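As the next step, I selected for study one protein, both as residues and as discrete backbone shape codes, as given directly below:
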Amino acid sequence: MKELFQHAAITEGITVRVAVNFLPEQSQPEAGKWFWVYHIRIENDSDQTVQLQSRHWRITDARGMINHVDGEGVVGEQPVLAPGQTHDYVSGCPLTTPSGSMEGFYTFTTRENAPIEVRIPFFPLSAPATAD
């Protein structure tokens, strides 16, 4: 199945694309648990080699509760991307509401250690309505 990247943002020649899917098999609505998986593709269309150092997520649930998540790299990696290279990874997000959203930024550094804050596009998390 070819994934469709629904959301994208470009910062200084670095594109971040996101495809998100609700996972009913990982969710338990009756227990107040919903789960999404998201696929991120980072494309370096700049003219310099960059390394992903850290991530910052702003995760909002349907009640308006905001959770900030910071960490080194992505899924345990700090990939180096030369011009023209891409990096893909998949991760997940649990919520205690059937909808919410995510957005944020990655911090990259250049070979000269100059930081670049690369935007992660806003994307909604929405579980399909279920009939009772």
